[in-house]
Each structure stands twice: as structure tokens, then as C-alpha cells.
Amino acid sequence: MSRCVVPIAFTLVLVPLIQPIQGDDWPQFLGPNRNGVTSETGLVDSIDGAVEVVWKIRGGIGMSAVAVAGGDAVTTWNAGGKQWLVSMDSKTGARRWATALAPSYGNSMGDGPRATPVITDDRVIAYTGEGILVAVQRKSGKELWRAAPFASSGSPHSEYGMSSSPLIVGENVVVHVGGARPTVQAFAVSDGAPVWSSGTGTAGYSSPTLLNVADKSQLVCFTGAGVISLEATSGKELWRYPFKTPYDCNTATPIVVNGGVFISAGENHGCVLLDVRSRNGAYEVSERWSSVDTKSVMRNEWQTSVLVGDYLYGFDNVGSAGPVTHLSCVEATTGKPVWQQKRFGKANLTLADGKLWITTMKGELVLVRATPKGYEELGRAPLCGKTRQSLTVADGHGYIRDDREVLCIKLSQ
What we know:
Elements: E1 37-38, E2 53-58, E3 67-69, E4 72-79, E5 82-89, E6 95-103, E7 106-107, E8 110-111, E9 118-119, E10 123-127, E11 133-137, E12 143-147, H1 149-153, E13 167-169, E14 172-176, E15 184-188, E16 194-198, E17 209-213, E18 216-222, E19 226-230, E20 237-242, E21 255-257, E22 260-265, E23 270-279, E24 282-292, E25 306-308, E26 311-318, E27 324-331, E28 337-341, E29 347-352, E30 355-360, E31 364-369, E32 377-382, E33 392-394, E34 397-401, E35 405-410
Parallel strand pairs: 1-29
Antiparallel strand pairs: 2-35, 3-4, 4-5, 5-6, 7-8, 9-10, 10-11, 11-12, 13-14, 14-15, 15-16, 17-18, 18-19, 19-20, 21-22, 22-23, 23-24, 25-26, 26-27, 27-28, 29-30, 30-31, 31-32, 33-34, 34-35
């Protein structure tokens, strides 16, 4: 049995078809640029044992995060024998609509849909636990189309469930599907028609992202076997880098670090910063630095690290399936360890206003200053029940859910 623990899955994105991203929106997995970072400022500088809850509503079982844009907050969950895509008023929590996507999903690794929906200008797109892609009207929740990319891939089902959060690139939506052929597929946002397919191998549990690498916008996909980079409009493979992790547990999202591509995985695997260069129409991939195996400086089990200036902050999960988890700061250009808060515990993080907003697996919110000088805790408070989601930060508020409730808290000063 797989021992990997995958997050919810919680898409840079959004070009002509999508409304412009606002600085106070978080319309997809890991925020506006899919790197766990928001430009929000003016947030509180400390937490004194409690948070101000703006609203709290009953939810359902699932691992999707909350996406927020233009007053809408959406997520997915299991309830009443079905998987639901639900829209709420981000200011009040009032239910706007709920659309049934498929029968309830679950397995021995946990119940509920995994992927985080993405909000566009006029629709919301969700990916179910068994791999059904569904688009609905943003205002009403009326289903517009559905596609079954997983079914067409000929792949054994991912043991944990399909965890790829949809990514909008231009007029297409992209997801990982896994299979002998293909691994990644693109569909038209307008009607769900297949546009292109690419790659081979298992899906893993990460999600596609759009990165500027070697002076080119590239679709970078961290699959079960490693990284593949694709031309976003055609799916043409540009380069690849093998990074095979036990149980196909590549889960964290790749991010750009000083022009390179940083990847990390748990199961005692480690991390690498890749340099990618274009020469004579071809790409050359090399390791700027590598830190793998049992003495790695960063082993992201499911949590994507964040880059702050010249430093990476993230969770190093020590041992198979991460029985011990440290919060670590690493020099991004060299991989040199800077500081470590040992045995911090399993958690996830978001960067906002120069601070790390950490949601622990047991349901606490911990505020930590993002500084290479050392661990500086600015307070902590009870937040919710058990959760693996990172905090969604939008318009001065934070959004989180567990298997019972969805809640909004005030973050602005």
C-alpha cells in the first residue's frame, strides 16, 4: 500500500479567456501565480491566541482548498453520497449554489475530491477524485460540459485519487491524467473538446504550472516519474528530468528559483534546483544543486515551498511518509541550510505580507516571520479541525476548510 500523503489538491495563469487577476484574489490552487504567494499587505503582525472568525458554515468531506475571486468562494466535498462543487459568498458564507459532480469518492487513503477548482471570468472548473473534469457557469452552477481525461488515458487509477488541480492557460484547461499515453491533457475551456495530449507515465499527485524558464513561458508538469516541460499551446515536449519517488509521490508544485526550476518530494527523496538553457533550438537541463536521500535539506511531502528573496521556506519531512517534520529555511541558490525549527509537525504554508501563514495538520494557525535570521513565531491560535490545506488569502481574509466546516477569518489590521 502506498504510504504517500497527498494534499488536497488545491492553477499563472490566466490569460485572454480569464478575467485579469486582482491582487486580492486567490482564484486557484496555490494562489494567483500558483506558488503559494500573494501580494496582499496590511495584514496583522501577530496572533494572540485567537483569530476573528467572520463566518463559518457546514461543509463536507474532502481535500480541496478554497478558491476565491470577485466575491465568490468555491470548493468541493463529499456529502449525501455525491461529490459537490459549491459556491459561497466570500463575504458572508451564504450558499449561492451547489452542483453535483459525481458519486462520492473515497479510498483507504481518505475520502472526498482532492483537486481545487479554478475560477475564470464566467465559469468554474473542477476535477473529481476519479478524474472527471467538469465546467459550470460561475453565476448559477449550471453544468456546461464534462470530460473524462482519466478514462481515455488507459492508466491504472492513482492509488490516492486524481489530485491535479486544473490550470487555465489561454483558452485551454490542463490536467495531469497519467497513463502509457498520455500523462497530460488539455481541453478547450469553451466546450471541453480535447485540444492536445502529451507525455507518458503515471500522473503522480502534483498539478501543472506555467513558469517562465529560459526566457520562455513553459507548462511544467511534475509527474510520478519526474518533470516534463511542454509548449503550452501544443503540448510539444521541450525537456524532461527524471525524478522517480517511491509510490509515485511527487506532490509539491515546481517553482521558479533564480531562473531555475525547484522540485522536491517526500519519502526521503529530496530536492533539486534545475538549470534549463536553450541552445540551437534545444534545451539542456543540468543540476545547479541537488540534495537527495536521507540527508536532504528539503523533502516536501505534499507542501510546496515558498521563495522569499534568496531563501526557500518549507517543510522537510524526515523518513518514509514523513513521521518527523521540520520547518526549514534554505539558501535558494546553493541549497545551504540556514535554520530549522525541528519537529514543527505536519503543516502547510502561504506567504503573505512578509509572513508565513502556517496551517498545521491538527488545525492551528501559526504566524512566522519570513526571515533568514532564524525562527520567529508571531503567535498561534486554534483554527479548525484536522486539515492539510494551506490558507487561502484574499482581500484581507483567510479561508480554510476541514471535513466538517468552511470558515473565513479576518487577517487585515
